[in-house]
Amino acid sequence: MHPTLPKLVETDFPAIRRDKLDTLQVNLGYLCNLSCLHCHVNAGPKRKELMTRATIDQLFEFIDQQGITTLDLTGGAPEMNPHFKYTVSQAVQRGIRIIDRCNLVILEEPGYEDLVGFLATHQVQIVASLPCYSSDNVDAQRGDGVFDKSISALQKLNAVDYGKELDLRLVYNPQDATLPAPQARLEQEYKEHLFAHFGVVFTQLLTITNMPIQRFGSTLISKGLFDHYMQVLKAAYQQVNLEHLMCKSMLSVDWQGFLYDCDFNQMLDLPVGLSSKKKHISDCLQTDFNQQAITIADHCYGCAAGSGSSCSGALT
Ligand code: SF4
Ligand code: SF4
Predict the structure, then answer these.
(1) Residue 226 is part of a domain; what is its CATH number?
(2) Looking at ligand 2, which residue's alpha carbon is closest to its atom 6?
(3) What is the pLDDT of residues 159-175, one digit of tens each?
(4) Full-prediction pTM beyond 0.85?
C-alpha cells in the first residue's frame, strides 16, 4: 500500500504557455511486463487499462486535424496493447515520426519474437530505459534478470541496424533522490562500457529527472525524503529551461482518450490547459492549442531543475 502523496497543485512555478503543438504522447495502457520502482504510472502485469481500437481511430482523426508530426507511444509497455501494430501502421501511412518507449525486456518475452523486425521495418525510433550500465543497479530498480535481458534485446536491435542507421536512444534516471549527472558525460561512460563489455552501440543517452509523483513519490515518502527532494528540485531551478519544456510543443493522451499538458499531469489527473474538467480528443478536433496556458504544479520543478528534463532528455 502506497502512502498518501501530498497535493502538488498549489505552486509558485511560473505560468507557462504552449508554443506550437507538434507532438502527441499517447499512453496505450498501463499493462506492463515489469513493475519498476521508479514507475510514475504504477504500471504492471495486472493492470487492465488498454486503449481501444475505437479510441485509436479517434486519435488519428485528432492527429490529422491538428497536423501532428510526431507520435510518441508509451504505457505501460505500449507493445502489449493488442492494437500496437495497427497504430504504428496508421502513423507510417501518414508519414509521422513514431517513437516507441520500449522497456527492452518486452522484446525478450514469449509471443513478441517478431517485434524487433516489425519496429525496424517501420523505422520506429526506439527510446529504451536502461537506468544504469551495471546489472546490480538495474536489477534493483527494475527486477531480477532485467539487465541481462535488456542487453540481449539491445544486441538483437543492433543486429537489425538500430544504434547505427536506425535511431536507438537509452534513458537514464537516478536511483535515488538526486538530479541526474550531466548527460554528455554519462553518455560517454555508457557508450564505452556497453561497447567494451557487450559490443552494444546506441545513438544517444537521455537523462531524465525522477518526478516526485506516483511510485517514486511514494518511495520518497516512505523513506522520509519527499520534502528534501522537493527542496533539491527547487534549489536547482533554472529559468532558461522554461523555453524548452516539453509541454511547450506536445500534448499527452491517456488510454481513454483524455488530454493533458504532459504525461506527469496525466498521472496526477490535472486536465489540459487549466481546465476544471477533463477534455476528450474527440471534442477537441478544432481546438487551437497554440498559446494555450499550461496546467502547472510543484512537480514542474522536476522539468526545470539543473540541466532540465523531458522525455527527450536534458533541456540545456
Ligand atoms: S517498464 Fe516502464 S511502464 Fe513498465 S513498470 Fe517499468 S517504468 Fe513502468
Ligand atoms: S511537469 Fe513538466 S512537462 Fe508537465 S506541465 Fe510541468 S513543466 Fe510542463
Answers:
(1) 3.20.20.70
(2) 300
(3) 999 999 999 999 998 88
(4) yes
